[in-house]
Amino acid sequence: MIIRPANSEDAEPIWRILEPVIRAGETYPLPRDVGRSEALAYWLAPHHEAFVAIETDAIVGTYYLCANNVGGGAHVANCGYMVAGGATGRGVARAMCAHSLARAKDRGFRAMQFNFVIATNERAVRLWQAMGFSIVGRLPSAFLHPTQGYVDALVMYREL
Amino acid sequence: MIIRPANSEDAEPIWRILEPVIRAGETYPLPRDVGRSEALAYWLAPHHEAFVAIETDAIVGTYYLCANNVGGGAHVANCGYMVAGGATGRGVARAMCAHSLARAKDRGFRAMQFNFVIATNERAVRLWQAMGFSIVGRLPSAFLHPTQGYVDALVMYREL
User: Is B15 within 8 Å of B39 (Cβ atoms)?
Assistant: First the structure.
């Protein structure tokens, strides 16, 4: 697997990854009906450093890295990751997370924080724990899941 | 004390409240050197509903209310509060918080979350606890305090 910075030609394959995840509405607090341009403007925002993961010439995942806060909180990084529907369970998220931790450390961040991991997304929670993240907060009923109703969201954190 | 929606004529008194708090850099993760227009654009952002607190014809505090997330997280509110330097200790923050809780409930929010309460800001932590908020998360060393170095930040939450 190759992980490299995203460029403008990646917009369409990135959208093909984002769209079903956003439409499902089970893992990210984004409007399920958000349009292509708005979603790409968010994912590829100027303050997001975006990457794509490539396997046999196909983009199978994407992530962004940014500062979670400015000012006195600018030393903590944040990331979002999405994997193509047909590529789950093959270590793409794990590889992107490892890449992002190394990149964040290179950029001088001292820690990484995930603000809103949906508690029902158990595979993600286990993976982030395996990658060294701890659950440092639990937000009760903070996410309206499309089929499970109000569920908790977790704040996860690790030093770099 | 009167609390009313902020309007464009309030920009200057709001900035006079914001500036010393931002310059001190002890309570908000904002760049200490941020300029007037950028700070006001943040505080009075289109998705922020901003209010001012007035005592004897002077604006002594300001707060904003917004959704803390979109999509499946849009039912949780967020607020920021600032009190004029000469008006601390007189219940202005408490009155604004009570106002914001009522306003958030009126708007249909189901909970309120503070994402980043600096742990050394003990007066604020005690006040939010007195207003019904619980500490639901602790972010270790997530804030670089100008005199105390890296200190924890707290995530606080209450249902409405």
Answer: yes
Closest chain A residue to the Cα of B109, Cα to Cα: A142
Say yes or no for a CB contact (<8 Å) between B25 and A72: yes
On whether the CB atoms of residues B77 and B111 are closer than 8 A, the answer is yes
- Which of B72, B76, B116 is nearest residue A25 as measured by Cβ atoms? B72
Half-sphere exposure of B1 (CA within 13 A, CB side): 18
The tokens describing A120, both together, are 């029902």
User: What are A91-103's pLDDT values in tens digits?
Assistant: 999 999 999 999 9
Q: What is the DSSP letter of B34?
A: -
Which tokens belong to A135?
Answer: 């659950």
Contacts of B5 (CB under 8 A, 6+ apart): B49, B50, B51, B52
Portion 60-119 of B in contact with A at CB < 8 A: 69-76, 110-111, 113, 115-116, 118
**ipTM metric:** 0.94
Q: How far is A46 from chain B (nearest CA, A)?
A: 17
pLDDT tens per residue, range A57-81: 999 999 999 999 999 999 999 999 9
* Interaxial angle between packed helices A36-43 and A11-24, expressed in degrees from 0 to 180 and rounded to the nearest 10: 100
Closest-CA residue in chain B for A23?
Answer: B71
Contact B73/A143, CB-based, under 8 Å? yes
B85: which DSSP letter? G
